[in-house]
Task: inverse folding
C-alpha cells in the first residue's frame, strides 16, 4: 500500500485561521492598506498574452539585485519566504541531520525542516525573549546543517544583534544559517552588507509585509553566489508567477510609499505601547509591524476584540507565550479603531487602568 515518508506521515499540520476574517485584520501581520497605487496600475495593464506565457524570472531578479546592492547570481526570487525556507531544507538537509531554531518563532521553519527528515531542536529565547546567542552556539554539533533565525522575530518582535548572527555563522561552518528579514522595513537593519563574510550565511526578504503583496507570494533569497547556484537546482524555473514579476519592479520603484507606510507603523506601534502600558498590560518592545502582549485569558480577549470588528492573533500556544496575543499595526486611522476596541475590551474584562488614546 502506498505510504508517505515517515517524516511526512508524522508531521503536524499548520492551519492558519484564515476563514471568517471579517473585520480589521490585525492578526496576520499584513499591510492593512494595501500595495502602492503603481502596482494597481501595472495590474490594469496586464494582457492575456502575458498571462499565457511562462514567467521569466531573471530580468526581475536583476532589478531586485540592483535595488538591494548585490549581484544577480547572489539572488533568487521565490514564492514568498516560505519557498526560500523550503529550498534551503531541500538543498542542505538529509534524514537524520540536525536543524536549530530559537523558540518561539515562525512555525514553518520546523515544518519544512521536519519534512526533510531532520531532527529539529528548539533553543528557548532568554528572559524577555532575549536572543540566546550563547545557548544557540552551545547547541551546534557536527550534525547541525541548518539554523533559521527570524530577525525581527515573529511573534515577539525582538531582534538579534548582527555580531551574534555572525558569531553563529562562524560557529557552524557546515550549516546553512538563514537570517529571515521579513520585517526589515520596520527595523531598518540588515545582514546584507555582511553577507560575504561567511559562505554559509543566507538572507531572506519578503514583499508580503510592508509592500502589501502577500497575495502575489513573492520573496527573495540572498546568499553566496556558489551556494545559490546549488539552491537554484532544486527550484522550479517558473516558481514565481508572471503577475508578481510584472508588479514587483513597480512596488520597488515607489519607495516613498513604503517609507511612509513604515513610518506610520512605527508611530502606531508607539501609540499601542503607551496604551498597553497605561492599562498595565505586559508587552515586549517590538521592531516589527506588530506587538506581542500578555492579556491573560487570550481566547476571551480575542473574541471580545472580534466582536468590536478587530482581529488579533492568539499566540498562547507558542513557547513562552501563555496568555499572549499578537496585534498587527496599521496607519493612524486603523490604530484609532484598534485603541478604541482595546480600551472597551479592557474595561469589559476588568483589565482597564485608565489608558490614554494618544
Result:
Amino acid at each position: 500500500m502506498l505510504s508517505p515518508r515517515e517524516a511526512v506521515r508524522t508531521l503536524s499540520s499548520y492551519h492558519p485561521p484564515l476563514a471568517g476574517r471579517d473585520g480589521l485584520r490585525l492578526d496576520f501581520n499584513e499591510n492593512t492598506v494595501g500595495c502602492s497605487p503603481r502596482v494597481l496600475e501595472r495590474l490594469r495593464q496586464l494582457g492575456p498574452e502575458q498571462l499565457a506565457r511562462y514567467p521569466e524570472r531573471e530580468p526581475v531578479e536583476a532589478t531586485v539585485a540592483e535595488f538591494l546592492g548585490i549581484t544577480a547570481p547572489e539572488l533568487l526570487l521565490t514564492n514568498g519566504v516560505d519557498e526560500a525556507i523550503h529550498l534551503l531544507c531541500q538543498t542542505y538537509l538529509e534524514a537524520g541531520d540536525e536543524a536549530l531554531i530559537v523558540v518561539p518563532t515562525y512555525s514553518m521553519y520546523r515544518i519544512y525542516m521536519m519534512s526533510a527528515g531532520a531532527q529539529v531542536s528548539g533553543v528557548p529565547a532568554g528572559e524577555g525573549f532575549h536572543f540566546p546567542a550563547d545557548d544557540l552556539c552551545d547547541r551546534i554539533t557536527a550534525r547541525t546543517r541548518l539554523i533559521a533565525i527570524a530577525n525581527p522575530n515573529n511573534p515577539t518582535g525582538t531582534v538579534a544583534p548582527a555580531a551574534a548572527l555572525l558569531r553563529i555563522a562562524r560557529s557552524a561552518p557546515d550549516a546553512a544559517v538563514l537570517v529571515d528579514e521579513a520585517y526589515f522595513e520596520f527595523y531598518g537593519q540588515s545582514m546584507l552588507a555582511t553577507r560575504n563574510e561567511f559562505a554559509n550565511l543566507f538572507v531572506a526578504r519578503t514583499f508580503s509585509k510592508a509592500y502589501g503583496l502577500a497575495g502575489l507570494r513573492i520573496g527573495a533569497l540572498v546568499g553566496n553566489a556558489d551556494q545559490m547556484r546549488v539552491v537554484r537546482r532544486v527550484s522550479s524555473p517558473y516558481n514565481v508567477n508572471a503577475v508578481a514579476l510584472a508588479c514587483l519592479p513597480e512596488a520597488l520603484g515607489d519607495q516613498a510609499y513604503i517609507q511612509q507606510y513604515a513610518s506610520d507603523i512605527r508611530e502606531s506601534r508607539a501609540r499601542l505601547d503607551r496604551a498597553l502600558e497605561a492599562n498595565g498590560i505586559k508587552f515586549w518592545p517590538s521592531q516589527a509591524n506588530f506587538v506581542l502582549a500578555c492579556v491573560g485569558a487570550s481566547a476571551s480577549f480575542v473574541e471580545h476584540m472580534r466582536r468590536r470588528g478587530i482581529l488579533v492573533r492568539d499566540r498562547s500556544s507558542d513557547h513562552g507565550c501563555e496568555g499572549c496575543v499578537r496585534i498587527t499595526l496599521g496607519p493612524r486611522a486603523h490604530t484609532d479603531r484598534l485603541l478604541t476596541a482595546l480600551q472597551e475590551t479592557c474595561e469589559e474584562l476588568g483589565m482597564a487602568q485608565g489608558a490614554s488614546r494618544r
